């Protein structure tokens, strides 16, 4: 039991999650994927899950997600986590075998106790096998390609949405059904809610808007893609956290994010609601005298190639906030530290609370001209529901 009391290197999980992101980025670039196919969508989540299961088999603190029963407190936590991550990455990205083999060998050489290293390797291999069988595409679900909706004989845009048919066929990690938390329909085009949302995004989100401040324009661009690593390291670097705690955080984060993407894609394709650029240019046909057409209106940022409702960024941010509040508290002493992958040389931005950050992510989608506020609110609600469902159902702490 002395192996349990001796802490492993605190950054092992973070290091291999960082590596997983780099390996996936290289893999996607090599395949020149424009539309995601489901092949790599869950690779990073499976890496985190495999490390969690391997570490939990040593430092037994949570319910296993995969039902793993192997348990060896003498095994090396580093060897178990590294092996689990390596095996999952190798299964997904065999073309990068040489570099993965070298990295794995270097990491394992750091574990000098051969018996503990071998025991950790065995647990890591078992955990990787189990993780690779979880969250996969369900062969029983028929994958139906997207069909553009238009009247017979009438032209419509021919570029298909970025959602692959595999989205609706992937097995949920947490939800009993993909549409479990599908929001109510968007408001009627003649309603007060729609009118208010329409006029707000038209005024604030246009490329040549005079109502938007320079700061708001910068934030619309800054928050297109978040870099969560600074915030994750805030949590994982806390004194007293164990490797299994950190692996569980990454696994939950990945599962919730995957679930959000599935649920959001399902709802978007179900409602097929028009984006502001379409609505504003065609407002003379919406039956609402309180909305005015602007045939030349353009959004500040590029409109994503999929339906509008609900807002995906808002769903993801709210879900992440709900998870991190549970893990770290809503208002950490050093603030919520998140950077951006959207702007070159972006620096970390500090927010007072997780809820404030999620609120500002939602606002940025209106400021960018790609969402209505009612779509943001629907997404936020769905994201928080999904996160709470995950925390209620999976990898719960064991009672000691």
From TrEMBL:
Protein name: Vanadium-dependent haloperoxidase
Annotated organism of origin: Sphingomonas lutea
Entry keywords, A to Z: Oxidoreductase, Peroxidase
Superkingdom field: Bacteria
Molecular function in Gene Ontology: peroxidase activity
């Amino acid at each position: 039991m002395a192996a349990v009391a001796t802490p492993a290197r605190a950054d092992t999980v973070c290091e291999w999650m960082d590596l997983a992101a780099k390996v996936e980025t290289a893999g996607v670039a090599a395949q020149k994927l424009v539309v995601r196919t489901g092949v790599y969508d869950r690779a990073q989540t499976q890496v985190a899950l495999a490390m969690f299961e391997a570490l939990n088999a040593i430092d037994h603190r949570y319910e296993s997600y995969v039902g793993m029963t192997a348990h060896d407190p003498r095994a090396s936590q580093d060897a178990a986590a590294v092996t689990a991550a390596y095996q999952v990455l190798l299964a997904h990205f065999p073309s990068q075998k040489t570099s993965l083999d070298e990295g794995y060998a270097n990491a394992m050489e750091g574990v000098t106790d051969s018996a503990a290293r071998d025991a950790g390797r065995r647990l890591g291999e078992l955990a990787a096998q189990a993780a690779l069988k979880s969250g996969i595409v369900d062969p029983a679900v028929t994958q139906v390609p997207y069909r553009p909706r238009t009247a017979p004989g009438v032209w419509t845009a021919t570029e298909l949405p970025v959602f692959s048919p595999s989205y609706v066929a992937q097995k949920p990690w947490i939800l009993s059904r993909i549409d479990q938390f599908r929001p109510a329909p968007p408001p009627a085009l003649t309603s007060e809610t729609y009118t208010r949302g329409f006029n707000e995004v038209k005024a604030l989100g246009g490329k040549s808007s005079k109502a938007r401040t320079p700061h708001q324009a910068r934030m619309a661009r800054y928050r297109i893609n978040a870099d969560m690593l600074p915030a994750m390291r805030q949590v994982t670097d806390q004194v007293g956290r164990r490797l299994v705690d950190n692996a569980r955080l990454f696994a939950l984060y990945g599962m919730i994010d995957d679930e959000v993407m599935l649920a959001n894609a399902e709802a978007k394709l179900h409602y097929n609601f028009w984006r502001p650029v379409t609505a504003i240019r065609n407002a003379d046909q919406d039956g609402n005298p309180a909305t005015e057409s602007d045939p030349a209106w353009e959004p500040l940022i590029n409109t994503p190639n999929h339906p509008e409702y609900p807002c995906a960024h808002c769903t993801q941010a709210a879900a992440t906030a709900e998870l991190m509040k549970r893990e770290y508290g809503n208002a950490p002493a050093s603030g919520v530290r998140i950077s951006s992958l959207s702007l070159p040389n972006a620096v970390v931005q500090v927010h007072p609370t997780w809820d404030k950050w999620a609120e500002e992510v939602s606002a940025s989608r209106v400021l960018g001209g790609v969402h209505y506020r009612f779509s943001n609110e629907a997404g936020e609600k769905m994201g928080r529901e999904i996160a709470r469902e995950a925390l209620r159902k999976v990898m719960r702490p064991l009672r000691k």
